[in-house]
Amino acid sequence: MAAATLSMSKQESAFSNMQLSLSKYARANDRRMVLRSMRDVKYLKCIPLEPLTTPRDSLQAFEEELLMEENILLNGVQFSGSRHFLTTLKELCAKLCDHDGVWMEVDTLYENLISRMARSTASADSFFKLNPLVGSGDLLLMPTSHKHGFAIKLNLYVANGQIHSTLSTTNAFGLFRKADVRPADLGGMSSVASRPWVALHAVVEERANVSNGKSVRHVKVKLPESLY
Question: What is the pTM of this model?
Answer without folding.
Answer: 0.88
